[in-house]
Design a protein that fits this description.
alpha/beta; 5-stranded mixed beta barrel; 5-stranded parallel beta sheet; 13 strands; flat
Length: 441
């Protein structure tokens, strides 16, 4: 008899923090210390002095942290896009359960010198105004023809052609092949662009034969992604100056979304990929056909409405011309109504004025009588106040008005001196007197 399998062993139940620490210990024992080569992306320096970024390549990405002590030992300023070699220790950031590489040292890898050269040329051309947004032109909504510069053996050609055939199969595409990688690539790209410029100018000349020279309204400069060495042809100074001389808008679609070249900054528009460059200049034909159908329907409806309105006006004009007597009769009736309204308005206004006059005549005597009574009362009150201010009433209570020989009132002992002649006015007469000895109270 075969043995029956025993019961399954239940897995151990971990605390989250304990599991994170166990993973960190396993990484410590298996990998650390470790060195990693990759391209910097998302670099930032916190106010604390710590640096946070990721290193990536075509197959993966690793989150990194470089603390202030290690960051202070750097002999260069890290930037996105630089290829670097970092050394440190793998660990787990337990607060989020993230894999994290603690960087203890960093140095530029093989392409550091190329990146510095790229930055120097970028700064020079930017200072000259080659990247100025004011000179960049909008793309045509519906180009009559598209110029394409790329390598015939590149995957970018297939991607662009596929996108254009899908979206705008009716627009002609003029391909001018050029080498897009290697030492000879910059000169080949300049020559190809110069040829496309001549074709674009010939197609836009008055009386141009479109059958021989299709008009080129926009140019695509494209290639697929790669390392900075692979894309270095598009960081050439002569190519940059040639791009800004384009007679028509130029779209640069070089590399993947994270790749930037000098050509991207000089072009009228940068596309993240070659396919995106094709889509930017090619509105789908179905969209335009739908828009044309909508416009045709609106035009048809508008014309029909205008015809209906004109027919109505024509019918009304014919009706008026056919019976002029009816029009005269209507105008006479309108005139009679206006005259009646005017007569009624005048009579009503006269009646209102007459009633107002009668009301004024009836109220005038009463208003005059009330006014006279009010004025008499005011006069009596004023006389009473005047009597109360009469100084003789004060003198009758035993007071006297003391003045000097010039008639000036004496109100203080300090104004009187021995031998001065004074006059006291009483209620019933005047008493002349001489000061003997003034005394203060």
């Amino acid at each position: 008899m075969s043995e029956r399998p025993g019961p399954a062993v239940a897995p151990r139940v971990w605390e989250v923090g304990a599991l994170c620490r166990a993973i960190a210990d396993a990484l410590e024992a298996r990998f650390n210390p470790v060195a990693v080569r990759g391209e910097i992306t998302g670099f930032s320096r916190a106010s604390s002095g710590h640096c946070y970024f990721s290193v990536k390549d075509a197959n993966g990405q690793l989150r990194c942290a470089m603390f202030r002590r290690a960051a202070g030992l750097l002999d260069f300023s890290p930037r996105d896009g630089e290829l670097v070699e970092v050394r440190g220790r793998l660990g787990v950031y337990e607060a989020r359960g993230d894999l994290q590489f603690i960087v203890e040292s960093m140095q530029r890898a093989g392409q550091g010198a190329l990146f510095e050269q790229f930055l120097r040329l970028k700064a020079q051309l930017d200072a000259e105004g080659l990247f100025d947004n004011a000179r960049k032109r909008p793309l045509p909504l519906q180009p009559r023809g598209i110029g394409l510069v790329t390598s015939t053996g590149a995957a970018a050609l297939h991607d662009v052609v596929t996108a254009l055939r899908r979206r705008v199969p009716h627009i002609p595409v003029v391909l001018v092949p050029a080498q897009v990688q290697g030492a000879a690539a910059p000169a080949a790209l300049v020559a190809a662009l110069s040829k496309v410029y001549l074709l674009a100018q010939a197609g836009q000349a008055p009386g141009a034969d479109f059958a021989k020279n299709p008009p080129i309204d926009v140019i695509l400069l494209v290639r697929g992604g790669g390392s900075i060495e692979d894309l270095w042809a598009f960081n050439d100074e002569q190519l940059a100056r040639t791009i800004v001389q384009s007679p028509v808008p130029l779209v640069c679609g070089v590399g993947h979304e994270t790749d930037f070249t000098i050509a991207d900054f000089c072009a009228d528009l940068r596309a993240p990929t070659p396919t995106a460059a094709a889509e930017l200049v090619a509105q789908p034909r179905d969209v335009w056909l739908g828009a044309l159908g909508l416009l045709a329907g609106r035009i048809s409806d508008g014309v029909q409405r205008q015809l209906d309105a004109r027919h109505q006006r024509l019918d009304q004009a014919a009706a008026r011309l056919g019976r002029p007597s009816g029009l005269v009769a209507r105008e006479q009736m309108q005139l009679a109504r206006l005259a009646q309204r005017m007569r009624h308005g005048v009579l009503l206004k006269l009646q209102q004025l007459a009633q107002s006059q009668k009301a004024l005549d009836a109220d005038l005597p009463q208003k005059m009588q009330r006014r006279l009574v009010q004025q008499a009362e005011r006069l009596d009150r004023a006389a009473l106040r005047l009597d109360l201010l009469d100084p003789r009433l004060v003198l009758q209570r035993g007071y006297a008005l003391l003045t000097d020989t010039e008639g000036q009132a004496v109100t203080s002992v300090r104004q009187a001196h021995p031998g001065d002649a004074l006059r006291a006015t009483l209620a019933d007469g005047v008493v002349d007197m001489t000061v003997a000895q003034p005394r203060l109270l």
